[in-house]
Amino acid sequence: MENIHKTIAVIDIGSNSIRLQVARVIDRTYKVINDYKATVRIGDNVYKTGEFSEEAIDTLLQVLTNIKTIMDSENVEMCRAVATASFREASNGHQVAEYIKSKTGIDIEIITGEEEARLMYLAASYYFQISDYNVLLVDMGGGSTEFSYAENGSLVFSESTPLGCSKLNYEFLQGDPPNDNQIKSLRAHLKDVFDEILPKKGVTKLICSGGTINNISAIYNKRQNLSDASVKFVDTVFAKHFLNEITGKKIEERLKISGVEPTRADIILSATILVNMLLKRYSLDGFYTLSGGLRAGLTIDVMNKMGIELIFQGGNTDVHYARLVETGKKYYFDDAHAEQVTRLSHILFEKLQKLLDLKDEDYKLLEAAAMLHDIGQHISYSKHHKHSYYLITNTELPGFSDDEIAIIANIARYHRRSMPKLSHEHYLKLSNSARLKVSKLASILRIADGLDRTHSQAVKDVNVDIEDDKIIISLEVDKNSNIEMEKAGFDKKKDLLEKITGRAVELI
Length: 508
Description:
By secondary structure, the chain is of the alpha/beta class. The chain has 3 domains: about 5-110, ATPase, nucleotide binding domain (Nucleotidyltransferase, domain 5); about 115-295, Nucleotidyltransferase, domain 5, CATH 3.30.420.150; about 320-505, Hypothetical protein af1432 (Orthogonal Bundle). It has 21 helices and 14 strands. A 6-stranded mixed β-sheet has the order 8-7-6-9-11-10, sandwiched between helices. It has a 5-stranded mixed β-sheet with strand order 3-2-1-4-5, sandwiched between helices. Strands 12-13-14 form a 3-stranded mixed β-sheet, with helices on one face. This is Ppx/GppA family phosphatase. Keywords: Hydrolase.
């Protein structure tokens, strides 16, 4: 049973928007239970006059009063509220923070750009296998942009720069639309900053965050009919096309472009220019966006300060595997059974890979399905395989595309009961190659699940002998273990493997 520690909240007070995230801490992970956003552009006046206007202060108070009401309704026990560039630059930033505290009780912490970058790095480490790449992290807010660079999982540097999209817009792109000279000046300024602080080459993955850059990725996803996930990939071809599309357009014309947020139509050009320059600088085929990066980093940091180390922070734990465990915990899965089925699936995959003509990368799909095959029991044990399909298709799985998530969900759906059929709509929607992959991987998962029918983890190893007309499987088990139920589970679930291979499957 899960161990619920606390309900915690984090508040990100940016130049363009204010965000609240409420999460319930469960074991070594968390589950977001409320998310609130107000797009308020409180930083605009700061870049013109150097201080918050009375109107901005009133707006800030109103939004944070609403947030306090939400937190009270969720019984929040711990809160961390941080403010970024606009508060750092405003001459009255500290006075405004004190005023808000006196009115709402919310203690606003004005964090440094370096702390902002550290929190973003923490969030990126949660969502990505940072150790596999040379990663440039870019968190573009309204008033500042934080850059962090990591090589093979080790943070090399973090730098805060005054390159926020609102600030750049105010300093360089005053025309509507901006003229060629204004755009050239902006590009020259960005190049100077990049040359001063960023590597000249070697970046193999670009991860961006911030509301305006996320708006760009949302437009891309909408045009590609992709799901709205926290982590998105935007290819360079689109980034170039979108830059050409909005350059030379007035704000009112940008507003007519489907997906452009009205509150970002005036500042989206500067963000698009910055991203395109980075893609060209490092000859990348695209960039990843991370929605809610600062909030994720804040939540992880709060949990760490509570003495809780998240699963992905445990030594050499694979980030993707850690996220699967965390997802399972959110649905109260039997982790020992899930890990046993995953382990047996891996053994069977290696033994049967050549026969089934599977690629090495196919195992990641099987691994995800094996870890999550029973999460549907959170809804009901009856038909839980179907519930697992639904939950997986509606759960974010960073590192997997929409097509891959559909395959994973189908593999999990077929871990019991019916074999795949074209009369099943969700299976029929897949491509021919994806349907074949689902059938092959599900045939392995069915047997692995059957071999832990009693959830006792009695089977320690599996041996496979492939003959012309049959597949012979033998087991290594704990002494004194009764595996009659596992044998029955095997016999019940070997059908799909027999159908695919045209061989009898026997357990000796």
